[in-house]
Automatic annotation (TrEMBL):
<feature type="domain" description="Nudix hydrolase">
    <location>
        <begin position="2"/>
        <end position="127"/>
    </location>
</feature>
<dbReference type="InterPro" id="IPR000086">
    <property type="entry name" value="NUDIX_hydrolase_dom"/>
</dbReference>
<dbReference type="Pfam" id="PF00293">
    <property type="entry name" value="NUDIX"/>
</dbReference>
<protein>
    <submittedName>
        <fullName>NUDIX domain-containing protein</fullName>
    </submittedName>
</protein>
<dbReference type="InterPro" id="IPR015797">
    <property type="entry name" value="NUDIX_hydrolase-like_dom_sf"/>
</dbReference>
<dbReference type="GO" id="GO:0003824">
    <property type="term" value="F:catalytic activity"/>
</dbReference>
Amino acid sequence: MSIHATVACVIEQNGRFLMVEEQRGGPSTQFNQPAGHIEAGEGPMAAVLREVAEETAWCVRLTGYLGLYVFDTPEGLTFHSHGFIAEPTEFMHTALDPDIHATHWLSGEDIRRLGEQQRLRSPLVLARIAAARAKRIYPLDVIHEGPANQ
């Protein structure tokens, strides 16, 4: 059994959430928070900052940790996904990751409707937004990154 270590980020501005629209090989695109795998030698915070920049062209400031979400897919894959919350700080005007069709600032209602249409990449999208809205946020220092993993 292998476990996939991933990150995802809830980014809210003016009541809207930054979402990525991805072409996943099906008849329609899917929507997700900026997210991706943690690469070798990388910690979760570095990974989420990299993924947000690659998928949205936004620099963000992490403001909290939403926790570790464990998700088993119907195909038998297990994901350990670190959820973060952040605020946008600067748009970089750089090219997006080729897997990203577009980015959108969507309301919570827009995202809920996408869920009803089964266009969310994962049920964790709504779970992370719910945690952020409920202020179930942990300080970033619960994650120990660095050479000594202090």
